[in-house]
């Protein structure tokens, strides 16, 4: 492990934590504008997180140790997963970091603990949220694996760092297969971060909530950790899409100017993607639970097509 | 002359557009957007014909592009949009045999089978072979997907749209593999226009003007919220 890599670890973690609340508020802002409201300020998520960090944590008397460790485990798993996706600077991969399968399992670990915590407090909302989340994830997981398999087939590698190096040095975006991958990854982002056709992140209505239901019992700094971890997860998935499809600005050498430029580029591209997500959400209604597989089937269809193209031509 | 590699790249991207539109047509339940997506698909075909024209320079491709643009991007979508305004059906949620998800999965399998079959039949030519093979596969797959739309939907309008997208597949196959005589292409398009007009008559009323049929719909309580009630 060389100095470059240690610096990468620090830079990537700091950038992802600093940027992710911004994207969450941007999406809220775009949605508010689309509905004709003014919406909260784009720094509102930062304020909310700071406020929550100052508040006291209250546990239900029925809850066990799982409730106490879940925010930490979730945050840790997501942050380690964030290390697998370079945002601004791609170093040489060290050890198993960047492996696509490990990345998926880290996300699954975070989700597993979140579902356990939903059940743990014994409230009926939490149990319902956990049950729904697990049903959805059991359908979306094969699709996610196929999408990542398609990525591996196209780039002939299992390591995200190598993929980014290929796209960053090739410089030219958007070959035809990458468009299909972009659509599949977009659907994955929507599902994994509980956005509108799947789940509504703003509502606390018992019929619809999935993600909110699970974190209903969290309070204080634990809630802040949960919110931050879901924001980081969204940013990481967005970074995966951005750096694969429009990689310009991504740097492979460690210089201060290069990293600053890359950071500016990343914020701009991420804001555009956040705007697209916001518009997409505004244009859709929430789907019925049993119609969700048709959304996943679309991603499945496109990525299987990529594999067919990659294998046979 | 434009560089061949760039044109081939553009054609590949257009192929992807066709796949996306076909998947959308097969899986959506929203009738209003199906027509515009069909027009988009035809427009993509026009672009492919133009790109091929810049590659080969054969004047027939240009003629095909013009005829397709006039008929399938402008006239037919206009007719179908008019029908939709008259009959006021917005959603198509009834299916025979297959629901959209299953049809998507089946069409995927079909594509694989077609690829394997065609790669043995189509002779290997050294230049641009993968592009032409892919075009042929896509053409037949589009035909199959259109066929699935035709038999899995219950509404007449979606059935017709499935048939139209089937014809798009024939056109695509014809552009890439065989040399369809232009006169046949032209006749097919005239047939399609007649078909669409027939559909208008069938779905709006066989023996009457549009206004007459409106009244009849009211009598049978098929149409409720309308201000021109008798």
Mean pLDDT of chain B: 79
What is the number of E strands of chain A?
A: 0
Radius of gyration of chain B: 19 Å
Number of domains of chain B: 1
Q: Assembly state here?
A: heterodimer
User: Can you write the helix and strand succession of chain B as a string?
Assistant: HHHHHHHH
The best one-word shape of chain B is: globular
Q: Which range does the strand content of chain A fall in?
A: under 5%
Q: How confident is the prediction overall: mean pLDDT of chain A?
A: 88
Q: How far apart lie the N and C ends of chain B?
A: 64 Å
Radius of gyration of chain A, in angstroms, nearest whole number: 19 Å
Question: Got a strand count of chain B?
Answer: 0
User: What is the domain tally of chain A?
Assistant: 1
Share of helix of chain B, binned: over 70%
Write the element-wise H/E pattern of chain A from the N-terminal end onward: HHHHHHHHHHH
- Shape descriptor of chain A reads globular
């Amino acid at each position: 492990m060389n100095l470059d890599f240690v610096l990468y670890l620090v830079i990537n973690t700091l950038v992802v934590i600093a940027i992710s609340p911004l994207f969450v508020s941007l999406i809220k802002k775009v949605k508010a504008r689309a509905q004709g409201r003014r919406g909260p300020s784009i720094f509102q998520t930062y304020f909310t997180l700071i406020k929550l960090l100052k508040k006291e944590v209250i546990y239900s008397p029925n809850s066990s140790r799982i409730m106490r460790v879940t925010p930490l485990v979730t945050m840790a798993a997501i942050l380690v997963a964030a290390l697998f996706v370079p945002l601004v600077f791609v170093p040489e991969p060290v050890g198993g970091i960047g492996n696509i399968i490990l990345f998926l399992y880290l996300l699954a670990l975070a989700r597993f603990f979140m579902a356990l915590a939903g059940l743990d407090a014994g409230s009926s909302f939490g149990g319902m949220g956990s049950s729904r989340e697990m049903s959805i994830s059991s359908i979306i997981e094969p699709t996610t694996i196929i999408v990542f398999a398609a990525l591996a087939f196209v780039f002939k590698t299992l390591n995200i760092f190598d993929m980014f190096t290929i796209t960053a040095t090739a410089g030219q975006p958007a070959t035809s297969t990458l468009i299909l991958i972009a659509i599949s990854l977009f659907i994955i982002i929507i599902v994994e971060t509980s956005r509108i056709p799947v789940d509504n992140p703003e509502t606390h209505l018992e019929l619809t909530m999935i993600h909110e239901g699970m974190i209903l019992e969290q309070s204080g700094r634990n809630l802040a950790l949960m919110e931050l971890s879901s924001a980081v997860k969204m940013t990481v998935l967005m970074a995966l899409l951005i750096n694969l499809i429009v990689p310009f600005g991504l740097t492979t050498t460690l210089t201060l100017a290069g990293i600053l430029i890359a950071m500016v580029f990343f914020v701009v591209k991420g804001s555009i993607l956040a705007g697209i997500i916001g518009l997409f959400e505004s244009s859709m209604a929430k789907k019925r639970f049993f119609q969700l597989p048709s959304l996943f089937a679309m991603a499945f269809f496109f990525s299987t097509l990529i594999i067919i193209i990659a294998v046979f031509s | 002359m434009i560089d061949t590699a760039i044109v081939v790249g553009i054609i590949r991207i257009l192929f992807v557009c066709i796949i996306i539109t076909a998947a959308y047509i097969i899986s959506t339940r929203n009738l209003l957007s199906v027509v515009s997506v069909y027009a988009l698909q035809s427009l993509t075909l026009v672009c492919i014909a133009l790109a091929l024209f810049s590659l080969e320079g054969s004047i027939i491709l240009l003629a095909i592009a013009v005829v397709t643009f006039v008929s399938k991007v402008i006239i037919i979508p206009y007719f179908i949009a008019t029908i939709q305004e008259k009959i006021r059906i917005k959603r198509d949620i009834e299916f025979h045999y297959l629901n959209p998800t299953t049809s998507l999965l089946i069409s995927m399998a079909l594509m694989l089978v077609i690829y394997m079959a065609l790669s043995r039949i189509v002779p290997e030519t050294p230049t641009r072979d993968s592009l032409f093979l892919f075009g042929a596969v896509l053409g037949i797959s589009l035909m199959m997907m259109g066929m699935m739309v035709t038999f899995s939907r219950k509404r007449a309008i979606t059935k017709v749209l499935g048939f139209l997208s089937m014809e798009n597949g024939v056109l695509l196959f014809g552009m890439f593999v065989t040399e369809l005589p232009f006169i046949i292409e032209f006749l097919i398009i005239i047939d399609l226009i007649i078909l669409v007009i027939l559909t208008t008559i069938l779905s709006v009323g066989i023996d009457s003007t549009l206004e007459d049929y409106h009244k009849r719909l009211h009598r049978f309580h098929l149409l409720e919220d309308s201000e021109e009630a008798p």
